[in-house]
Amino acid sequence: MDSPGDGQERPRRRFWQRLRNYFITGIIIVAPIALTIYLVTLVVRFIDEKVMPLLGERYNPETYLPFAIPGIGVLIFVIAMTIIGWMTTGWVGRTVIRLGENVLDRMPVIRSVYSALKQIFETVFAQSSRAFRDVVLISYPRQGCWAIGFATGTTKGEVQDAIQDEVVNVFLPTTPNPTSGYLLFLPKKDVIFLDMTVEQGIKLVISGGVVTPEVAKDETNTEIKLSPGGRHDGGPSA
């Protein structure tokens, strides 16, 4: 039989367990919001510090106000990029860009850096681009081990010519920092394309597997199984 002391300890133990659960729940709710606000604040502050000095004291709104207004630099940056984009769509803008690129092409080191950066940005931001649109499952670093990657396109050029199979470019991110990783050239038959979105894949990588996307279900509320060579059974591979 339990002693009278055990009966007194149980309510006390349950009380401290409730406090612990409340504390953890508070952390889960507050931490993502606080980190999001912190990161947004860093980005806004960085852009403001770079843009606002370009206005000069005469055109800087903060010169005539007793307080600083965060985000003015971001607004000016967005407006400036939109105006530049509009100007470059015309004949005059395209001519200026073409002349500037011709100048850069004459500089040995700068032309390589500019060409690579331009191609990356055009690939990522092009509306018709499929870069980082597919989350894939690959066998890495050995058979029996699996890793989440992102298909960035079909391999072309000398790399594809040197390989008999059809090859896919796969970016394998590291955890918890997905901005670093490895570029792998894998046969398409060895790559399993998943139905999860890129955002879900990134969350899975950053969280180290803690945040797992829900399994897609069809109209009959049954789980959709992935086939060994691609997406779910019964559906075409995208």
3D structure, described in words:
- By secondary structure, the chain is an alpha+beta fold.
- It folds into three domains: 1-81, no CATH class; 88-125; 132-238, no CATH class.
- Helices cover 49% and strands 13% of the residues.
- The chain contains six helices and five strands, in the order ααααββαβββα.
- The chain has helices at 4-59, 72-87, 91-104, 108-125, 158-161, 198-206; strands spanning 134-139, 146-154, 167-173, 181-187, 192-193.
- It has a five-stranded antiparallel sheet, with helices on one face.
- Helix 1 (4-59) crosses helix 2.
- The protein is flat.
- The model is unreliable at 222-238 (pLDDT under 50).
Tell me the series of helices and strands, N- to C-terminal: HHHHEEHEEEH
Main sheet overview: 5 strands, antiparallel
> From the structure provided, what is the oligomeric state, counting identical versus distinct chains?
single chain
| Rg, alpha carbons | 27 Å
Strand content: 5-15%
| Outline | flat
What's the end-to-end separation, in Å?
65 Å
Overall number of structural domains: 3
Counted by DSSP, the helix tally is 6
- What is the structural class? alpha+beta
Low-confidence stretches: 222-238
Tell me the strand order in the biggest sheet.
4-3-2-1-5
In helices, the fraction of residues equals 40-55%
Kindly state the number of beta strands. 5
